[in-house]
Design brief:
39% helix
């Protein structure tokens, strides 16, 4: 018997051992309606996730920044950086980077500064990027996803968790289907249960966007999701986000997961 306690204010969401599809769909729709009309912040309709960034990253790893070169009166910073712990690279083993960072007008201080150490996915900027600024004649790089996906050493637990998630996910990229999809679904469940808000939210979104979620979840992943759904201490806001993310696909994938768990 799996019982999922709904967010406060939502009733009749317990699932029996053999619930009907209509009952499950009604339960998912009820939670979705509650979220839409007053249960907290909504997920966007299609932002990239950490996993999307890992798919297209040129390199992923732990970086340490050196003193910045300043352009545009300090509004454009270019940091020589060293990859101190390489998690993944598309080609070879890069060690030095040139990170371009544009300061937000709202920042009293730059988000990135000399000495910062963090985990991030990195992309290569086009050769003609920032040509007006006469940047050094070398490859230029960007932090994919911006500051949301900069996991700084000031929160070592989050940085190490992000590193583990990134390593496990990028290790699947060389696998063939359907094994790659199964392994990736497992990593998304890891992210959901990680306790790191950015990773948990992205794990939810990535799982519920999967067109073949029930097929891709193996027994271990199903068991972990079942434990999460039946855990009274699990964050109700996270479960509300799960329902809302499901609603982006008409709740079909959410229904499939609940049926499988039940």
């Amino acid at each position: 018997l799996i019982r999922w306690r709904a967010p406060e204010g939502v009733r009749h969401l317990s699932l029996s051992m053999r619930p009907s599809r209509n009952l499950i769909r009604t339960a998912a729709t009820t939670v979705l309606a509650t979220v839409l009309f007053g249960a907290g912040p909504a997920l966007g309709a299609g932002p990239k996730t950490f996993f999307d960034l890992l798919d297209r990253a040129w390199a992923v790893g732990e970086l340490r920044l050196s003193a910045a070169l300043e352009y545009r009166d300090g509004r454009l910073l270019v940091f020589p950086a060293h990859l101190t712990d390489l998690v993944h690279a598309r080609l070879g083993k890069p060690r030095t980077l040139m990170i371009v960072h544009e300061r937000s007008p709202a920042d009293s201080e730059p988000f990135l500064k000399e000495g910062d150490q963090f985990l991030a996915a990195v992309g290569v900027l086009p050769d003609h990027s920032y040509w007006r600024d006469n940047l050094p004649a070398t490859k230029r790089h960007e932090i994919l996803g911006g500051r949301r996906y900069v996991f700084k050493s000031s929160d070592p637990a989050a940085m190490e968790t992000a590193k583990d998630i990134a390593g496990a996910y990028t290790a699947t990229l060389a696998l063939g289907m359907p094994e790659r999809a199964r392994r990736q679904a497992g990593v998304m469940v890891d992210a959901l249960l990680s306790g790191v808000p950015v990773l948990a939210e992205d794990g939810l979104r990535a799982l519920l966007r999967s067109p073949r979620l029930a097929r891709d979840l193996d027994g271990a992943s199903v068991a972990r999701l079942a434990a999460f759904l039946s855990d009274d201490s699990a964050d109700p806001a996270v479960r509300a986000r799960l329902a809302l993310a499901a609603g982006e696909q008409g709740a079909d994938s959410f229904v499939t997961v609940l049926e499988k768990l039940a």
